[in-house]
């Protein structure tokens, strides 16, 4: 009589369902880890003046900032501005950064270019600046969500 009380039967279909649910759960967890560990760089665009000690520079500058909001370092190979006609303004000699530059997690860098110079060239091309960008070593381009205007 005691043997019948403690007897547990598990069907093959219950084991199969348990395995299927466990496998699906592990795939979801692996995918979430993949998304969490992807490189993520936020690009910000602003304008202003450079300061030299106790005075400001004369020319308005366009500042392009890259912020690593991901969990892995990112090697950045360049920065620039994209034009509406498909051409690029590439910042080849930024004063603050030597490319390639390894941007650690939680850190940021900033490059700048003279706004008047950029918009003189843009006016010659009869086009507009559409966005600012940074490009990493894998070829992925990180872009701003808005453009800067020539006011």
Largest sheet: 5 strands, antiparallel
Indicate the percent of residues in helices. Answer: 25-40%
Q: What is the total tally of β strands? A: 10
| Average pLDDT number | 86
CATH class of the largest domain: Mainly Beta
**Distance linking N and C termini:** 92 Å
Which outline best applies? Answer: elongated
Sequence stretches where pLDDT stays below 50 over 5 or more residues: none
What count of helical segments does DSSP give? 3
Strand/helix succession: HHEEEEEEEEHEE
Structural class: alpha+beta
Q: Would you identify the CATH architecture of the largest domain?
A: Sandwich
Task: Report the sheet-strand fraction.
Answer: 35-45%
Q: How many domain units?
A: 2
Structural account:
With 151 residues, the protein is α+β, with helices and mostly antiparallel strands. It has two domains: 10-37; 41-143, Immunoglobulin-like, CATH 2.60.40. Helix content is 27%, strand content 36%. It has three helices and ten strands; from the N terminus they run ααββββββββαββ. The strands form three sheets. Strands 5, 6, 7, 9 and 10 form a five-stranded antiparallel beta sheet that branches. A three-stranded antiparallel beta sheet has the order 1-4-8. A hairpin with a 2-residue loop joins strand 2 and strand 3. It is elongated, with a radius of gyration of 26 Å. The chain starts with a helix and ends in an 8-residue tail after the last strand. The mean pLDDT is 86.
């Amino acid at each position: 009589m005691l043997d019948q009380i403690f007897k547990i039967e598990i069907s093959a279909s219950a084991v199969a369902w348990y395995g299927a649910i466990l496998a699906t759960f592990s795939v979801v967890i692996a995918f979430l880890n993949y998304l969490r560990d992807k490189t993520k760089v936020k690009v910000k665009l602003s304008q202003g003046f450079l300061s030299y000690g106790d005075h400001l520079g004369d020319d308005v500058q366009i500042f392009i900032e890259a912020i690593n909001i991901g969990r892995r370092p990112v090697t950045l190979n360049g920065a620039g501005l994209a034009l509406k006609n498909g051409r690029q303004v590439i910042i080849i000699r930024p004063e603050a950064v030597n490319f390639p530059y390894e941007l650690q997690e939680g850190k940021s860098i900033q490059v700048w270019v003279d706004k008047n110079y950029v918009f003189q060239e843009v006016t010659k091309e009869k086009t507009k600046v559409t966005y600012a960008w940074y490009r990493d070593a894998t070829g992925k381009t990180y872009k701003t969500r808005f453009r800067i205007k020539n006011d």
